[in-house]
Amino acid sequence: MDQVNVTRNETSNATGVEDSEWTQAVVFKLRTAILLLIVIMAVLGNLLVIVSVMRHRKLRVITNYFVVSLAFADILVAMVVMPFNFSVQFYNEWIFGPVICDLWNSSDVYFTSTSILHLCCISVDRYYAIVKPLKYPIKMTKKMAFVMLAATWLSPITISYAPIFMGWYTTSEYMRTRELNQCEFKVNKPYAVISSSISFWIPCTIMIFTYLAIFKEANRQEKALHARAGNAMLMHRHSREVGDKNGALHINATTPTKDRNILKMKREHKAARTLGIIMGAFILCWLPFFLFYLSTSLCDSCTYPEVVTVIMFWTGYFNSALNPIIYAYFNRDFRNAFKNTLACAFCSFCRRNASDSDALERLDRRGSAQLRVPMPSRRASDLASL
């Protein structure tokens, strides 16, 4: 009887071990697939953003200079930073040595800081475009945009490559006990506070207050546009009635210049909303990481499972793949450009250079102009849709 019980226990233990190994294998394959998908989405999505802006003249505005530069930074995150983290998850150890470990940690800090500074530049650009539109052509020139981009790419070196390769970022105890098969980002308290403030907290605070001012001004302008549109509709109706009675032609209440200004203002507001959503997505993806990073760095006795670190890092990395999705969903110009670029990429008949795509856009505009309704009714319908 005892022998039978022993045999049953051994069989149940063996079954339990097999089930555990099968579960671990499934979890490992699922995790690997998800991480690879994030890397591929980040590379292809941001490459699509860059190519679409290069191919379509309509997207070549100053704001999109920052968007293209941000997309390039996200591509470098996917190609330089994510693969090393993926290798750690795949092999469960670090296999590249201490020098590459410092390079990886430096690149991680550098590109994260670069991304948040790009978004800060975008918020400043949108602030001048909507809150101070008269100063926008003077302040936000191409030269100023390039100066801001140069500062965005060069300034994060002071908190990434320089302090990490010089060993200023960590504790002396970690430098003594550092193992070759491990690559931990163990930082000291001053570096944790300074780096997180420069990389995230200060720029994020600036962006929040900037976008609050933008949305406050945008709401004020939209209310003014609604009131102006209502008055224009009444004036147009009154002038038409008077003209019909007197047998004379009536004059529309609006002018082409006003129509262009109104439509331009609407485009500025839509662009600000899209870029505000991008900023919000960045904060949602990276805020948990920086809270975790700062709290664990300042707390000496805090313990946490390794899976939490993995989730925090890859939640932040996912933001690099999220921006093109936001463009495609919320911005009609980018959405149309993405469709055209993908069509030309997958259809040999549609392969054209940039000038060909611009010529196609001009032909489309000319063809659609022939189908437009008369000018007075079109202006009234545009104002009614505000």
UniProtKB/TrEMBL annotation:
Q: How does it sit in the membrane?
A: Multi-pass membrane protein
This entry carries the following GO cellular component terms, namely: plasma membrane
This one is known as Octopamine receptor beta-2R
Q: Which organism is it from?
A: Euphydryas editha (Edith's checkerspot)
Q: What is its main location?
A: membrane
Q: Could you say which protein family the record assigns here?
A: Belongs to the G-protein coupled receptor 1 family.
Please give the biological process terms from Gene Ontology that the record holds. Answer: adenylate cyclase-activating adrenergic receptor signaling pathway; positive regulation of MAPK cascade
Keywords in UniProt for this one?
Cell membrane, G-protein coupled receptor, Glycoprotein, Membrane, Receptor, Transducer, Transmembrane, Transmembrane helix
